[in-house]
Amino acid sequence: MLRGMRVLLPFAVLAGCAHARPAPPPAHPNVIVVLIDDLGWRDFGGYGSDLHETPRIDRLATQGAKFTHAYAAAPICSPTRAAILTGKAPARLHLTDWIPGHAPPADAKLTIPDWTKRLSADETTLAEALAPAGYVSASIGKWHLGGPEETPEKQGFALNVGGTNKGQPPSYFAPYGIPNIADPLPGVEYLTDRLTDEALRFIDGHRAQPFFLYLAHYGVHTPIQARVDLTQKYARKVQVGAQHTDPKYAAMIESVDQSVGRIVDHLAVLDLARSTVVIVTSDNGGLMRITSNAPLRNGKGTAYEGGVRVPLIVSWPGVVPAQVVETPVVSMDLFPTVLEFAGTPARQSDGESLVSLLTGKGPLAARALYWHYPHYHGAGGKPFGAIRSGDLRLVEHFEDGRLELFNLRDDVGEQKDLAAALPAKAAELRDRLARWRKAVGAQMPGRR
After folding, report:
1. Residue 17 is among the residues annotated as catalytic for this protein
2. Which residue in 52, 77, 206, 375 is the catalytic one?
3. What's the count of helices (H) and strands (E) in the chain, helices before strands?
4. Which of 21, 196, 282, 364 gives 259 a disulfide partner, CB atoms 3.0 to 4.6 angstroms apart?
């Protein structure tokens, strides 16, 4: 009998190992994009905040890919959202400001071009591109890409909860004042929590087929309103001399962190974690009067790093290994990345798929990143163009043609202008920026 056990044991062990071997990733994984509004580059704990606690997002970053040089396509919201959903640069779409945008100040030197204040139904969104592979898509939260003719339902999404032409909620507490969110009893519910509930309900209803969830939180955009329990927690934690000192803003960020944690936990309960790609990012840099983007310069609506550098985390257990990625990437890259992960045909895009980079198969080819903002912004921003090539970033100010050149590796805060010291390099980058604008059909401001 003992001898028989010795013979059978290796087969039992082999069978157990075979059973424990992870299943290969699905050909059509679920995709969840969590887009946080106005979140600054340093606003997560894992990105360096000295106040905000984001343990669930930080864990996602340590388990997957954490990008340190990720950029929004624009320093304001609507263009970046359009870029994520279509893979096209805002300059190509002629959708270059938040909708409907600011009127130029009285002392403006330039006139604003006749830009497009909607995401055209002619554009192909991620939802539409994924549909032929059997995906069902939901847009939950902020839309802000047009009026009644440009709603998520008209752009390939089977479900729209909370998406209207509004750029911010009238209130984070019920009644929300958002037409397609039914209000509970006043004061009982917080908007970030409610949108998460709707996201979990969508996942439950579509767990048997591939789904794309675009969860675009209104948080942490103004109005700065937070749950009382979390606000009180941070009021006790604020330190004199810290970069981050607003307890309500900190509480709003933790609510978003809790949202991501609830979603990740729910995927685990449904055994969907290894078949779901989760992406977390922001639509532009943090608003300076609300948060600090230091050591980056300035913030939302401006030409500098604080206006466009954002967090980016990509997680897919078993496919995307833990890593910190320093390669510069931009919002448009998410479109081809999602399509490649989903096993769907590639489409023309201004971005590059990050799949080879994320899976360790090879780096991205060297390229430049570009920005085009022919507008004035209430936060102090003026019309500009910019290019990042390698470590160098050039800013061209449209009002007077002034150039600023910075070496981001040595000067991430963009304090030392090298344009006068390196005039040939500044001119070269200015010319490359001009050629790019011509190639994408960018609209330029006019002279008054």
Report:
1. no
2. 77
3. 12, 15
4. 196
